[in-house]
From TrEMBL:
Residue stretches in coiled coil: none
Extent of the signal sequence: none
Protein name per UniProt: Biliverdin-producing heme oxygenase
Gene Ontology biological process terms in this record: heme oxidation
Length: 202
């Protein structure tokens, strides 16, 4: 039987990354709007809060980016982490390093961990736009906006390389479901961190 006779199969993208992209598109747009509503590139004060949000998310994922088993699957994984870059950005701008916010991801399974990392990696695509706006404020990939810098080898190449490995990993049906949930949870976490840094008094 051909898949065309099964509309549900036709709607489900074959690749895991494509499925996750489809599943989280609305959440991405909501996050993008939420970030935009705070106008982070219109004042250093607002940018600082956006940066604190980025730092918190990156630092929550730092352990996963440096996980030895995950680095066996993705040989460049540790070098993809931007927690240190975000920390250096905070230091550049003389901003406080925010305290950890309760509710960070704890001891995830492999599918969950990699899907959170994938959300973080995807944000490097949007960062191509964001760094231009940061540059207009006098920041750069060597001062204050290091975490938005283009990765060595290029944004799209790094993103495709990540997804090629991610898509080729065998997941059980349970792990596929974990990945779907993880994409939702990662975007929710970013919303929480965004609310936190914009409401906390620095
Ligand atoms: C920290 C917040 C953000 C996160 C976590 C994030 C995450 C992602 C992810 C996961 C993707 C890849 C989508 C997929 O294929 O599954 C993506 C792509 C993209 N994001 Fe974001 N994003 C963030 C903020 C933004 C913002 C503020 C903008 C607005 C400028 C933006 C613009 C884009 C663009 C233009 C793409 C590329 C779409 C494409 O060409 O496929 N992102 N982002």
């Amino acid at each position: 039987m051909s898949a065309i006779q099964n509309p549900a199969a036709a709607e489900q993208p074959a690749l895991r990354s494509a499925r996750l992209r489809q599943a989280s598109a609305v959440l991405h747009d909501q996050l993008e709007h939420a970030v935009g509503a705070h106008a982070p590139f219109e004042s250093r004060e607002s940018y600082g809060r956006f940066l604190q949000m980025q730092y918190l998310f990156q630092s929550e994922l730092k352990g996963l980016y440096n996980d030895p088993e995950l680095n066996q699957l993705f040989p460049d994984l540790a070098s993809r982490c931007r927690a240190d870059a975000a920390l250096a950005d905070l230091n550049d701008l003389g901003l406080a390093v925010p305290a950890a916010v309760p509710g960070a991801l704890i001891a995830p399974n492999r599918a969950t961990a990699l899907t959170w990392i994938r959300v973080s990696e995807g944000s490097k695509l949007g960062a191509a736009i964001l760094i231009k706006r940061a540059e207009a404020m006098g920041l750069s990939e060597t001062f204050g906006a290091r975490h938005l810098a283009e990765p060595e080898g290029g944004r799209m190449r790094g993103w495709k390389a990540f997804n090629a490995i991610f898509d080729a990993l065998p997941f059980t049906p349970t792990e596929e479901a974990d990945a779907d949930q993880a994409a939702v949870d990662a975007f929710s976490r970013l919303q929480i961190l965004l609310q936190h840094t914009y409401s906390a008094h620095a």
